[in-house]
Amino acid sequence: MDRKTIKYSFLSTLPVMAGYLVLGIGFGILLHDKGYSFWWAILMSVGIYAGSMQYVGVELLASHASPLSAALMTLMVNARHLFYGISMVEKYRDTKASKPYLIYALTDETYSLVCDPNLPRGGDKRRYYFWVSLMDQSYWVLGSFLGGLLGNVIRFNTEGIDFAMTALFVVIVTEQWEKTKMHIPAVAGAAVSIVCLLLLGPSDFLIPAMLGISVVLFLLKGIITKGDAFND
Prior knowledge:
By secondary structure, this protein is an all-alpha fold. Helices cover 75% and strands 0% of the residues.
């Protein structure tokens, strides 16, 4: 076993561990608050493992949403992973038996770690991809488990806990804004979302907004590509 790669993978995932434990606990508590035991939290984190979608899934379960609504919402919320996957085709080409799991476990945070690893001398990239993916999911599953248990023993007002995932995305967007000079995608996304929110209201704006953002970004693809090339 490559201890050097495992150690480096663990150290690399420490920031993710801090975030996933907190967010996982929040998810487990919310799920328990809707009447589901901690086993549901574990099963969802093992079988679904999509942080933001799991938070949305709590409300879908509580509102008895139809399978079609759940499928469309999942597609819209996680559509970004299609682009993640395309960019990882070459990196995951020689990962052999672990490839299906690596594809499944590619979250936002895992992507940021495996996209451009700076491994120590002698480190194995394929094993690094696997250990980072497995460790990150383990943190999320553990957090969900702890949240489900805490929901059994601690009684308090859970209002606002679901904002934890929103806060995480705010941090990610802020970080990406600071790293790039091309702000057209972010501005376009915010503008379309605000328009849809004002026209359709908070309960119906999400899917139209994401469709609108996709259309706007497609139409602005040429400008965005030229801007990225200029900034590089």
